[in-house]
Structure formats: structure tokens, C-alpha cells
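Researcher: Structure prediction, please.
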Amino acid sequence: MTSRRPPHSPSQPFATLDWTGRHVRLLDQTLLPRKVKYLSIRDEKTMWEAIRSLRVRGAPAIGAAAAWGLYIGTARRRNRTLREVRRNVKTVADYLAGARPTAVNLFWALDRCRAAVEALPDGAAADEALATLLAEAQAIQREDEESCARIGEHGAPLLHGIKGVVTHCNAGALATAGMGTALALFYTAAAEGQRFTVYVDETRPLLQGARLTAWELQQAGIDVRLITDGTAGTVFQRGMAQAVVVGSDRIAANGDVANKIGTMPLAIAAKYYKVPFYVAAPLSTIDPAARSGADIPIEERGAGEVTSFGGTPVAPRGTKVFSPAFDVTPARLVAGIVTEAGVLRPPYRRSIARALAGQ
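Model: Predicted structure follows.
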């Protein structure tokens, strides 16, 4: 299977992850934009490390990577019977689930693949079980490509008539198996002839906006202005942007949104200046078991990501650090959640439940 770009996708010289038939070919995002390098992932330990170290990141891409990691990790073990396959699937899935705690797509993809194998009749052969696991991973990647295209189509009208839009972190093709979530709106709107400037937060401390989003939008020929995380308020104050679009790693049942740290203060500034704040994410990013943002586990990262910059220390030795990787934006600050099923509006508990019921 190879990735195919959905309608309205930018012409990009990269694919975030592909299945070659023998291994997963994965773009190492820690090296961007200095170097474009692909990794060959052949076992679950290498995939775990790739997810943990952010070589692959973004909730939908993590979900696809987890599905592929589960397949290759299971296939390399001894699988003489269906029982052995099921036992191996559980072992590998439990291992991969420990890579990162916040992106719900990781657990969603693992649970979906495991359920597909568990649903086989007890008399099924081991080869059939492995083929089912492979097919499920392929389906997850294909469905994400199609979902991204629909998110772009549903969300592009929200950008009609604007001159500028702010985004935070990276929610583009690098974060998905397709054309992205938040950035899918930009790509689709641009393909329809709209012209606007995207103001990209640098996204400290790992600079996903500067390293990834600015690079990706440049590849697509979209006008980009890189700003520091603290500059967005000034952009709103001066009337330079009329919308905000971000992605999400997990959305609670009430519409609270977990996204990269710095998203919540961006939403507060947007609310103050009456700039609509939109979230773009597939329905698989919604966690109905999380009643509110208080139920979403927030990953904390190592101190070195804050106390150093490009490998150079920038803080006194021994400085204590608080470094959550994500924050939670309250639903009342969100003007709309753009999904493959359409744009969900408040009250979110009702619109989210209706969207999930229609899957």
C-alpha cells in the first residue's frame, strides 16, 4: 500500500508514513526542516521510540503508526495458532500504549485492531488473523486520508473572506496520514482560489510551528508569517487575522479540547478580540469516556526541552521546570469543531453525541 493524496491536497514531495509491503517508511520529523530523512520501522520497539520521541506526531498520524506498529510487532513473533496471534496482539498493543498518554488516537487504533482479531471465529487460521490485522492497519490509514479531505471541505467555507488566520503547533499532512486537519482547511481554501496569510506560532519548546508547519505550508505555496507564541494577541489587536484554526490530540464529550501547550491562552486572546477559534479533528479524536477536560491525562515532558535550545543550555543548571506537553481549552472558547461529519457547534455534548451516533 502506498499513500495517495486526497482531493485538494497540496502537491507535496513527502508522505508522513507508508507501508512498503515489508516495513513502515516513516518521515523523521525531529530532523525537519534541516533534513528530510525516512526511517525503516521493522519492529514495535522502534515504532514505540518513534512515537515517544516525536519522530512521528499528531494524533491521527500516531494512530496510524500504532496500527502499523501492532501489525509488524505481531507478525515478527511466532504465530502458529489464532490463540498465539491474539496473545501477541495483546502484548504488543499493551507495549505501544505506553508510548504517549494524551493522544487518544493511539489507544483508539490499538483497540480497533485488537477488536478485529478478537472478532474472528475461534476456528480461524493464524494467517487469516495476521491478514485481518494488516487489513485493519491499511483501513485506518486510508480512512484518515479520506477524513482529512472531508475536514478540509467542511471547514474551508469558514475561511471565506478572511485575510489572515492563526494556527498553533502542526496539524497538517505531517500530523496525519492525509492532508492534515487544521491545515486541510487552508489547503482546500487555497485550492478554491482564496488568498490569505497564515500566522504560525513557533510553538515552544520544540518549535513544531517553526520547524514543521512553516515548512509544510511553504511546500504548498501558501503565504506564511512565523510569529512567537506571545505575538498572536498583537496580531488580533491589529486586525491582521480573523480566525484561528488548530488541531487536537483529544476532545472530551463536553467539547473541551486538549492540544499542544499554548493553545488555551491563544483561545483566550481570540475570545477577547472576538476572533472565532476553531478546532479541526477527526471523530476518532473525540473521547466519549472523558466527560470533560479534567478527565484527559496530560503528558509532561523532560526538563531539558525547556532548559536548552538546540542543544545549548539557556537556563541556570539545576533550574526546576514544569513542562506539560498539552493544555485544555474550555469548550466555551471554541466556536466550532470541524470533523469529517461536518462542523459541530455548541452545545457540544449534544452535537458530539449526535455525530458519534451517526458514525
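Model: The chain has two domains: 17-149, 150-357.
Researcher: Thanks, that helps.
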